[in-house]
């Protein structure tokens, strides 16, 4: 059939079968648009505009949501990375502390403590005094230790060095050979042929204060434990 719209002279051919598939409301809206003319087009245009605005708002909201999620994920990754770096740093610190602890324990085990006999005795009796107390006459094998022992005493003392077994072959009480000596000028000289035991004289320069003496002379002994 043909419907004539006077204002626009628009001819529409409508198949009757279409009406059979439309609801009553759809038919009423259709006839209202046909009778309304330009008003219907305006409403359709406004409706499409609203749809476009809603679609744009939806797209903007989606973009904001995606951006926020992306920023959140990035922030999470940064936090995880910082956390891992902190863990690694703590592990390195723990390793360093453990190594320092081991070194410190090793140094503590290697530390010695010193004490001096209370009586004047021969070299051998002074050594026995130390051994009776779980120690021995001091062994001085470093410059640092030599300085320390020299600062520790205020009088001549026996140290754990002698050449009683073989003249000229100095050995410590642990039977190790002398590698570095801190002799006073001209010493050792074995004066009189019986100077086989070594004393430390703090009145001399602290790096040149060893002297050989007769082992029967009496001195206090410096013990090391």
TrEMBL record:
Keywords: Coiled coil, Lectin, Membrane, Transmembrane, Transmembrane helix. The keyword S-adenosyl-L-methionine does not apply. The chain crosses the membrane at residues 16-34, 41-61. InterPro entries: C-type_lectin-like, C-type_lectin-like/link_sf, CD209-like_CTLD, CTDL_fold, DC-SIGN_domain-containing. Gene3D superfamilies: Mannose-Binding Protein A, subunit A. The keyword Iron does not apply. PROSITE patterns: C_TYPE_LECTIN_2. Residues 108-224 form the C-type lectin domain. Residues 73-107 form a coiled coil. GO terms for molecular function: carbohydrate binding. It comes from the Eukaryota. PANTHER family: C-TYPE LECTIN SUPERFAMILY MEMBER, CD209F ANTIGEN. This is CD209 antigen-like protein E. The gene is LOC107714123.
